[in-house]
Amino acid sequence: MDDLDFDGPLTGLDFRDWEDRLREVEEVIEIPELRNQVSEVRQSARDIRRENKENGKPPKWDLVDMQILRPMTEINKRLEEELSLRQPKRELIPVDHEPVPAQYSELVRRYYERLGGRKEKDDTRN
Question: Is residue 82 a part of any domain in this protein?
């Protein structure tokens, strides 16, 4: 049972691809603190994989959780926050954004005044 084959990014054959993708993420992050955190996660993953290969035992999953999963979750959360701050604020556009033709503007004004007045009367009944 010492020769167990674990299939996954840390212990399987696709580690190199996974690490390369993580390196690409690291390279595009503009925030130094987050970039360093991704680098630390990559290093932790390499260390865990090396230990797994040397002793042929499964990784210590609590270390995987603490050194890889939790930091990656936090990095993802921070990146989402940063992206939301960088997106332009969408302005609300009224559904009826077309201007009212001049010949109807007075009628529309009175219509809205009546609606407003009717609401005030309804509010006084309660």
Answer: yes
CA distance from start to end of the chain: 77
Q: Which residue has the tokens 């040397």?
A: 54
What is the DSSP secondary structure assignment for residue 69, as one 8-state letter?
I
Question: 82 lies in which domain range?
Answer: 15-86
50 is a domain residue: yes
Query: Closest Cα to residue 112, out of 124, 94, 126?
Result: 94
Mean pLDDT value across the chain: 83
What is the C-alpha separation between 38 and 74, in angstroms, rounded?
A: 10
CA distances from 114 to 77, 88, 95, 111 (A): 49, 37, 21, 5
Reply yes or no on whether the pLDDT at 3 is more than 50.
Answer: no
